[in-house]
Amino acid sequence: TSYVIMLVISYLIDIISGIFLIGYIIQNLKIMCNQPFFISDIFYGFKNHTNKIISLRFIILSIELIGSLPFLFFSYFVQQDPTYPLIAATVLSIIPAIGVSIWMELEFSMSYYLLVDFPDYELKELLRTSRSLMKENRGRLLSLMVSFLPLYLLGFLSFGIGNLWVSSYFRMSLTEFYMDLISRKNASKSE
Predict the structure, then answer these.
(1) Given this model, what pLDDT does residue 158 score?
(2) Can you tell me the distance from the alpha carbon of 157 to that of 136, in angstroms, rounded to the nearest whole number?
(3) CB of 54 within 8 A of CB of 18?
């Protein structure tokens, strides 16, 4: 029971963090476009399109959860009976969980930015547009993410304090990546 309660609480925290993420994206987009931004922008998701933000976050997290069910299943039983076959199954089951999580991050990472730019889009349109934007750009985004790993590791050497700057730099880099994708899409439409 405590295992399920822990999963539900972490799921709810992830959904609430998605609401704050939208506000953070708005701030980054305003900075990129040289517009004034305000601290109150961080609460944008609580005032506007809250149901759509929660639904979008719920869909993405649910698919990630389905991909990690084997790992969660085996890790629960390893806690009860830590035998070698169960430990091996747990370690092996983490590979698909990580794969699904990375795929979801690459495939639908731009859907939050699209929600800010195109708030009238339905959820299916946001997910479909994100997939089409990322179709030939997954490798670029993956290399961008991997390039931040050394910086995050250095941030951990300062007991995590350095990661405050690294995560801001990473989010701004994602915003720049999104702006590049949109400009390429607009350029290909005009040709």
Answers:
(1) 87
(2) 35
(3) yes
pLDDT for the residue 83: 83
Q: Give the C-alpha separation, 52 to 61, whole Å.
A: 14
**Does pTM surpass 0.85?**
no
How far is residue 96's CA from residue 84's CA, in Å, rounded to a whole number?
20
Task: List Cα–Cα distances, 77 to 70, 73, 81, 87, 155, in angstroms.
Answer: 11, 7, 6, 9, 34
Identify which has the larger pLDDT, 74 or 9: 9
What is each CA distance from 145 to 148, 149, 150, 151, 173, in whole angstroms?
5, 7, 10, 11, 9
Give, in degrees to the nearest 5, the angle at Cα 122 between 118 and 125: 80
Inter-residue contact 135 to 142 (CB < 8 Å): no
The residues near 178 (Cβ < 8 Å, ≥ 6 apart) are 110, 113
Query: What local confidence, expressed as pLDDT, does residue 39 receive?
Result: 87
Give the DSSP per-residue string, 10-31. Answer: HHHHHHHHHHHHHHHHHHHHHH
Task: State the Cα–Cα distance between residues 49 and 20, nearest whole angstrom.
Answer: 12
